[in-house]
């Protein structure tokens, strides 16, 4: 465990208040005086499990040389002791899962708890084997909740704390640190606010490698709202003993920075696709040191002290205009001069970090988050990164896709192999999805790696998961989740993290193999066995079906079955068209479109899978009517074309595809209807099919910023899932 990290999180939690004295046990005997406040943990329990549970749980704050929680007590008075508020919540969640058969996760919860609460049959003690437990890719806020309110963030922090994550990438409001710094280097407030990527691309544009988009900018009103929101988020995380991972100053500046600051050396880093990358101020220069000093000072004034700083010069490309060994040393020395003990976090992704940049870095204040631990075989991170501490981690989800699946089998064994090998530099875990929510199981499984000393029996883990999702053991639920555990959740390290997306979301073509350009072209598991999970879930005992978790899981599995079916149906449509068989073509394309309509209805039974609420959030966060239109446009564009036509043509169209109501029904479905109509006309007339300008068609949908979408879930999940099973 990294000692400075643990110490700072404990100090932050202590500052939140005074704890009740710890009692009993060899570890707790050392805690004769209050250690930290348990109130933030109690408040979180009240939010996620209700007042009755919060009133019965007794938290004990303890001081120890290692992070751990212990669960004991008696009926009506369960006792959970732990070494920080976030560890107490991790212990509470373990109690929910493995004593009460309850479940709290993204988008749904099953917390039908007994009263009084029982104690465990035997004492439970779990020790953390990883001091750093990070959640969040640098763009996860863009693709998950660019317009979240504090209530959304509060729920997210609670969920992540329950799982045991003690650090979260948090860029909210940080763009104003850059704005205020620029104002001291020759830029007006209006110019600084204009130098801001659009909301659904903001973290990527300003921090993750850095590039510009022509339709950016932020109003003063929304900027101030975001600063206040970021302050509240950081305060809440600190109260729970969690660390925000925030952007540091790597040196990204506007391209005319040198013109306004004589003596500054600013390099052109080239292009990311068609977008000009942000210019790079020479780190080994006085202007860089001056700008960085102001950046860190302003950040501290606005948001308080931080320890973890994300800085990635080459996340996805970029020229290297400076000697990288010197640049790396200068960036780190400047960070240490302004934030003694501050840790420079970098992505292990593509060519980042470049080996030359690591040459002179101090391992004690450097941390690499591996994005591809589960993607390839034969990796040797100690050799690649020269002994720099790193976190085990996958990206797992790209673009916020709603597909189910992950390389759990690889996580289950490889993490422990890497952690225990001689000379290991592994220091932590990091789950780095580009988009959160959608598929809830990987969040839980990955988090448990840090609290187990050896691999689990995956079949048993899936059985336990099924039990807590629905509140009791059920052989059909177990059968369903074990089938998924052998297929979608046990994919190999074959060059991919994520499962395949669905072809309903793809730009129509008879030979299309994926919706997102860089997603798997084939199903990465045996779809036939996965499909057996649907009838098994439908056969779960009626008494266990009345929970949000059951409805969410049933919808997700039925939706995935339809997506997998699309990959079997499209080749048949292609054959009918090429054979000139109009009757079969009409029959199969009608089936395709009916499945899309059914999928739209199915996902519309669950609020988290509806486009309408996300559009409403974009509107609500704007500072004025013009910004409201831009935010809606930007969000719809991110989900579809992603950016301008050049970016879409470069392969980014549908990069962020999702199985959401109204995105399916008003965007994906009309594309396929139009495409099939052109093919039908071609078959009937014996002519070539009409060429469709997809960019123009999609841009018209994006530009319709006044269109309203469904806001309230409707329909019966069970009945619609039953239709999937019986009809398709």
Automatic annotation (TrEMBL):
Residue ranges constituting the Alpha-N-acetylglucosaminidase N-terminal domain according to the UniProt record: 41-119
A GO biological-process term: carbohydrate metabolic process
Signal peptide: 1-31
EC number: 3.2.1.50
InterPro entries: Hex-like_dom2, NAGLU, NAGLU_C, NAGLU_N, NAGLU_tim-barrel, TAT_signal
Record key words, sorted: Glycosidase, Hydrolase, Signal
GO-annotated molecular function: alpha-N-acetylglucosaminidase activity
Limits of the Alpha-N-acetylglucosaminidase tim-barrel domain: 135-452
EC primary class: hydrolase
Gene3D superfamilies xrefs: Chitobiase/beta-hexosaminidase domain 2-like, Glycosidases, N-acetyl-b-d-glucoasminidase
Alpha-N-acetylglucosaminidase C-terminal domain ranges (all copies): 461-724
PANTHER family, per the entry: ALPHA-N-ACETYLGLUCOSAMINIDASE
UniProt protein name: Alpha-N-acetylglucosaminidase
Species, as recorded: Naumannella cuiyingiana
Species classification: Bacteria, Bacillati, Actinomycetota, Actinomycetes, Propionibacteriales
């Amino acid at each position: 465990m990294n000692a400075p990290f643990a110490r700072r999180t404990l100090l932050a939690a202590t500052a939140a208040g005074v704890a009740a004295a710890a009692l009993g046990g060899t570890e707790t005997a050392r805690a004769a005086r209050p250690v930290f406040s348990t109130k933030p943990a109690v408040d979180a329990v009240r939010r996620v499990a209700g007042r009755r549970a919060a009133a019965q749980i007794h938290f004990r704050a303890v001081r120890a040389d290692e992070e751990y929680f212990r669960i004991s007590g008696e009926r009506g008075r369960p006792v959970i002791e732990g070494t920080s508020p976030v560890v107490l919540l991790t212990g509470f969640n373990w109690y929910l899962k493995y004593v009460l058969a309850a479940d709290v996760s993204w988008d749904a919860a099953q917390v039908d708890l007994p009263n009084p609460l029982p104690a465990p049959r035997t004492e439970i003690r779990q020790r953390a084997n990883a001091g750093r437990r990070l959640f969040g890719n640098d763009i996860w806020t863009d693709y998950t909740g660019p317009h979240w309110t504090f209530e959304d963030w509060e729920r997210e922090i609670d969920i992540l704390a329950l799982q045991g994550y003690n650090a979260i990438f948090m860029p909210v409001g940080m763009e104003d640190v850059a704005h205020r710094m620029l104002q001291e280097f020759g830029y007006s407030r209006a110019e600084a606010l204009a130098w801001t990527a659009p909301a659904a691309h903001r973290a990527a544009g300003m921090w993750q490698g850095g590039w510009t988009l022509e339709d950016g900018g932020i109003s003063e009103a929304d900027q101030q709202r975001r600063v206040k929101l970021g302050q509240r988020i950081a305060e809440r995380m600190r109260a729970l003993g969690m660390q925000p991972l925030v952007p540091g100053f790597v040196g990204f500046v506007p391209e005319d920075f040198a013109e306004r600051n004589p003596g500054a050396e600013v390099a052109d880093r080239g292009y990311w696709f068609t977008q000009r990358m942000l210019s790079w101020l020479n780190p080994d220069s006085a202007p860089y040191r001056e700008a960085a000093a102001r950046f860190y000072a302003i950040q501290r004034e606005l948001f308080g002290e931080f320890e973890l700083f994300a800085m990635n010069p080459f996340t996805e490309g970029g020229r290297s205009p400076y000697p990288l060994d010197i640049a790396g040393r200068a960036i780190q020395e400047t960070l240490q001069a302004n934030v003694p003990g501050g840790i420079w976090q970098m992505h292990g992704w593509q060519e980042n970090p470049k080996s030359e940049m690591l040459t002179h870095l101090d391992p004690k204040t450097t941390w690499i988050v591996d994005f591809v631990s589960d993607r390839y075989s034969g990796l040797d991170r100690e050799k690649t990164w020269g002994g720099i501490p790193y976190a085990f981690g996958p990206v797992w989800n790209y673009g916020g896709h709603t597909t189910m699946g992950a390389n759990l089998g690889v996580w289950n064994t490889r993490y422990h192999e890497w952690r225990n090998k001689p000379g290991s530099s592994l220091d932590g875990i990091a789950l780095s999805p580009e988009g959160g929510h959608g598929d809830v199981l990987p969040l839980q499984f990955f988090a448990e790696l840090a609290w187990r000393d050896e691999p689990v029996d995956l079949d048993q883990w899936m059985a336990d998961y099924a039990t807590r999702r629905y509140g009791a053991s059920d052989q059909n639920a177990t059968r369903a989740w074990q089938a998924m555990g052998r297929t979608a959740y046990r994919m190999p390290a074959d060059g991919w993290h994520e499962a395949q997306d669905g072809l309903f979301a793809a730009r129509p073509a008879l030979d299309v193999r994926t919706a997102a350009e860089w997603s798997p072209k084939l199903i990465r598991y045996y779809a036939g066995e996965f499909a057996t999970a649907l009838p098994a879930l439908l056969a779960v005992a009626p008494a266990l079906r009345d929970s949000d978790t059951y409805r969410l899981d049933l919808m997700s599995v039925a939706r995935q079955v339809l997506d997998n079916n699309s990959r079997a149906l499209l080749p048949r449509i292609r054959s009918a068209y090429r054979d000139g068989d109009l009757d079969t073509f009409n029959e199969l394309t009608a089936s395709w479109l009916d499945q899309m309509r059914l999928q739209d209805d199915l996902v519309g039974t669950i609020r988290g899978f509806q486009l309408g609420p996300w559009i409403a959030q974009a509107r609500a966060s704007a500072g004025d009517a013009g910004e409201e239109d831009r935010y809606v446009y930007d969000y719809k564009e991110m989900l579809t074309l992603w950016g301008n036509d050049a970016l879409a043509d470069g392969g980014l169209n549908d990069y962020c595809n999702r199985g959401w109501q109204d995105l399916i029904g008003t965007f994906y479905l009309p594309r396929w209807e139009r495409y099939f109509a052109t093919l039908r006309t071609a078959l009937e007339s014996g002519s070539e099919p009409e060429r469709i300008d997809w960019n123009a068609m999609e841009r018209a949908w994006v530009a319709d910023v006044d269109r309203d979408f469904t806001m309230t879930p409707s329909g019966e999940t069970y009945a619609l899932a039953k239709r999937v099973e019986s009809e398709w």
